[in-house]
User: What shape does this take?
Amino acid sequence: MSSVTRNAVEAGRVYKSTGAIPVNLLRSPIYHAWERSHLQGSNPYALQAEKLSSLDTERLVEQHSSLINATRTYSRILSQAAGSDRHAVMLSDRNAVVLDVVGDEQTVHGPEPFPGPGSLLSEGVAGANGIGTPLAAADYVEIVAAEHFIEGFHPFTCQGIPLRNDKQEIIGVFSISLRRPDAGQRLKEILKCATNGIEAEFVIAKIEQDVRRILNAHPEDYQPLEELRQDIIQAHQAARLKLEVGSRMVASNRLDYAMQILRQADKSIQIFRRRAEVWQSLASFEIGTVQPVSLTDSIRDLVDLLSTEASIRKLEVVTFWEQEPIKVVADSRSLLRKLFRYFLLAFESAGKGGRVEVLVYMLDSESVQVSFIPNSGLNLDQSELTQYTFSLPIANKNL
Assistant: This one.
């Protein structure tokens, strides 16, 4: 038994006999979780979680079907990483009610009770646990064995992390419970990476809504944005594949290699999220606030977003400016859309195997000029190719 578990067992004994929570025996996040559990009236002697009725559970699961579907692949990947260890991967809603459980047969459907869909795991009902505590703390939490507030959860070590939508609102918790206290640490990184992957699924769902809106309201803009959408989805698919490989490595205890793969997966997810953010700005068609914005960062973002398209066309894109960042006064979304149009025009002019130069230079102390200069890869008179140029007011350096 580890020192953490021994201390938690003693803390539980003291609490049950005196009603006092010994701060010196519990890790700080666990002490605060016990304090919240106590103040909300959780019963430390409880042996299992309370549950909704079958009908209410069925309605709740149906209501959250999109969340469950977005998570199911990652539940399977995380379960795969647990290997032969007794475990359960759990998804809850924002009220700590269990929506879905994936794990080994003995844990999920065995004779010993385990929280299934409809179980109430808020700290007020079930005490400190791998669903309710991450929700209350709004952060990743690990709870080891007797650190759980109620007796029925002591056989498990649980890790949980909140799931956030595109507005950064917590909409649920993704968690894994294991019978072996020492098994949890090797799953921490894949849990976090899987959570990032789930949140990327929410972004994809939002992008698909945007695509349908564009097709209905701005059909002339649909095709280039749809092609870009397909390109950025590839980064997410690459991340999911790496996560799948990483889970197999974790399951077979090839942890060093697994960590390398998971870092690559997480990097792919971050690339996807950044490109998706730029794509959504292009697709919004809304006019925002005119304010200082980095012109050079906007160009760099579009070069990255268009990298697959440039590769398909065998185009080289070269950028040049004498200083950075260069800030201009503009609506950031309108600026991105304008730059995007000019990039596409220059790509078309340059043709396959060509080159597009993007030059940014100061006209004077108050304005900057952006020039897109296509150079054809064919033996054509380059002077006949159209250059695309526009100017913008420079932002005050103090802003």
